[in-house]
């Protein structure tokens, strides 16, 4: 399974710069901020938005389903994330879907 994380909110670039207003777009590793929320990031980011919490829940659900069932697709979700067939098929994880 391959994915492209395209949710732009709080980012690694803000953590590294120490500036919550620093924006460079989605950075490598930004997905980890939604899988493993840490107090360090909260002190820089401030309060999470409802959209941030929803994205975190989505990321945790995908990973937990993959670890538990070998399939990241939630039963209740209509989005299908297909295994990579060698043609670099991927799921775009963003606010719209």
The count of DSSP E runs of length 2 or more, i.e. the number of strands, is: 2
Cα shape: globular
**How far apart are the termini?**
17 Å
Q: Estimate what percentage of residues fall within beta strands.
A: 5-15%
Low-confidence stretches: none
Spatial ordering of strands, largest sheet: 1-2
Main sheet record: 2 strands, parallel
Radius of gyration, in Å, reads: 14 Å
Helix/strand structural class: mainly alpha
Secondary-structure element sequence? EHHHHE
- How many separate helices? 4
Mean pLDDT: 81
Structural domain count:
1
User: What is the chains' assembly state?
Assistant: single chain
Helix content: 40-55%
Domain Carboxylesterase type B: 1-95
Protein name: Carboxylesterase
Pfam families: COesterase
Keywords: Glycoprotein
Summarize the structure.
This protein is mainly α and 97 residues long. 40% of the residues lie in helices and 6% in strands.
């Amino acid at each position: 399974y391959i994915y492209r994380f395209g949710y732009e909110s709080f980012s690694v670039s803000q953590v590294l710069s120490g500036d919550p207003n620093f924006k460079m777009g989605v950075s490598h590793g930004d997905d980890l901020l939604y899988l493993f929320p840490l107090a360090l990031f909260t002190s820089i980011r401030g309060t999470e938005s409802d959209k941030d919490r929803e994205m975190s829940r989505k990321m945790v659900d995908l990973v937990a389903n993959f670890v538990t069932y070998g399939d990241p697709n939630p039963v209740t979700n209509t989005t299908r994330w297909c295994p990579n067939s060698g043609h670099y098929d991927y799921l775009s994880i963003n606010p719209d879907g």
